[in-house]
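# nightly structure sweep
# worker-07 picked up a monomer target from the shared queue
# config: single-sequence mode, recycle default, output format = structure tokens
# input follows
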Amino acid sequence: MGRPARGFSLLELAVVSVVLSVLLAVFLERLTFYQEAAERARFEATLRIYKTAVQIRLAELMLERREGEARTLEVENPTRWLAEQPADYGGAYPDRPAPGTWYFDGKTEELVYVVNSGRGLVTRGVNGMKQLRFRVKIIYQPVLISGRNIRSIGGVSLLPSAAYRWS
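# output follows
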């Protein structure tokens, strides 16, 4: 009787390597999926903060009977109206924007989010980077006063400059 063989055979080592490689590939794919989901959630939360700030600013102007100044909301940086800037706000739009950062583009008067990964994002890119751009838009509605239709402020919104879909 001989001694029993010790250790792994080459075939067993190859099988273990293949199994570990498949598990690692699945793990890395899920990791990127969850990283993008976290970025999207952070983007949507910050966008809601900006939308709320714009609506509150318009309400302040209306309460102070300064509706005539409402048009300035369409050209000002909405970050000015926040009590605290978002942690991922980068200021004025630079020549080389950093991914995962919000900026205000003074030339186009748009709030810009430069997407970090965006594998599930369908939109136009600028300089090879996916960007989501938003503009403040005053909404007017006709009001009937003394038999005449008068244009009155009905609200404000932060609208995307271009269509996008992030799935």
